[in-house]
Automatic annotation (TrEMBL):
<protein>
    <recommendedName>
        <fullName>Fatty acid hydroxylase domain-containing protein</fullName>
    </recommendedName>
</protein>
<feature type="transmembrane region" description="Helical">
    <location>
        <begin position="88"/>
        <end position="109"/>
    </location>
</feature>
<feature type="transmembrane region" description="Helical">
    <location>
        <begin position="46"/>
        <end position="67"/>
    </location>
</feature>
<dbReference type="Pfam" id="PF04116">
    <property type="entry name" value="FA_hydroxylase"/>
</dbReference>
<keyword id="KW-0812">Transmembrane</keyword>
<keyword id="KW-1133">Transmembrane helix</keyword>
<dbReference type="InterPro" id="IPR050307">
    <property type="entry name" value="Sterol_Desaturase_Related"/>
</dbReference>
<dbReference type="GO" id="GO:0016126">
    <property type="term" value="P:sterol biosynthetic process"/>
</dbReference>
<dbReference type="GO" id="GO:0000248">
    <property type="term" value="F:C-5 sterol desaturase activity"/>
</dbReference>
<comment type="similarity">
    <text>Belongs to the sterol desaturase family.</text>
</comment>
<feature type="transmembrane region" description="Helical">
    <location>
        <begin position="129"/>
        <end position="151"/>
    </location>
</feature>
<feature type="domain" description="Fatty acid hydroxylase">
    <location>
        <begin position="115"/>
        <end position="200"/>
    </location>
</feature>
<dbReference type="InterPro" id="IPR006694">
    <property type="entry name" value="Fatty_acid_hydroxylase"/>
</dbReference>
<dbReference type="GO" id="GO:0016020">
    <property type="term" value="C:membrane"/>
</dbReference>
<dbReference type="GO" id="GO:0005506">
    <property type="term" value="F:iron ion binding"/>
</dbReference>
<keyword id="KW-0472">Membrane</keyword>
């Protein structure tokens, strides 16, 4: 399907609008306006990503480690300040590269290299790459694509926080912890279905006991 130049022009106008909204509120115009459009887009994603990381991380820690102390995690299991700072340091090293993915996605769409989006454009690094590769194969709405990247980051964090939601058939943190201890079970992403089908499912102990009791 041929890409409509009017569509591409409208898409660039929209991403430029997004850049202006974020950057104009966070940086002096003299610092970002001279930059090429690609770098403006990356800077917008980088700054917004950092804001989201620190705000959501603070609220999550405040809720789990303060308001709900000893409800989800015992007090003696709370990470030390040194451990938290180390995790923040690692996240900051990854942030420039992680936010490069949606930037590259937008650039590919703006250049007309991907499959034409199925609708109007108003519509956490390696694990998100398949979503970018899919742009070459499957027509997908821009907002759907960006939402998948966002949800990927949320999901990746949630399955590593050791708080097992125990919502069947979701592949929660309990399942994923087993994956990191045996390295031969629970390869699934969002649900347990594929592991169940191929015989690699290992149920967390508490759930296993509940199933036997039923």
């Amino acid at each position: 399907m041929a890409v409509d130049n009017g569509f591409l022009s409208q898409f660039v106008e929209e991403t430029t609008f997004y850049n202006r909204i974020i950057l104009s509120h966070l940086l002096p115009a003299s610092l970002w306006e001279p930059l090429p459009h690609f770098l403006q887009t990356w800077l917008r994603n980088y700054l917004a990503g950092n804001l989201l990381y620190f705000i959501s991380g603070f609220l999550w820690c405040f809720y789990i480690y303060y308001l709900k102390l000893n409800v989800y995690i015992p007090k003696d299991s709370i990470p030390t300040r040194k451990a938290m700072i180390l995790q923040i340091h690692v996240a900051m090293k990854a942030m420039p590269w992680y936010t490069l993915l949606p930037t590259v996605s937008e650039y590919m769409i703006e250049r007309g290299w991907t499959k034409w989006l199925a609708f109007h454009p108003l519509d956490g690094i390696l694990q998100a790459v398949p979503h970018v590769i899919a742009l070459f194969i499957v027509p997908i709405h821009l907002i759907t694509h960006l939402s998948l990247l966002f949800l990927e980051g949320i999901w990746t964090a949630s399955i590593h926080d050791c708080i097992h939601g125990n919502i069947w058939p979701i592949m929660g943190a309990g399942y994923h912890t087993i994956h990191h201890t045996t390295y031969k079970h629970n390869y699934g992403h969002y649900t347990i279905w594929m592991d169940w089908m191929f015989g690699t499912l290992k149920v967390p102990l508490a759930e296993d006991d509940n199933e036997k009791a039923m």
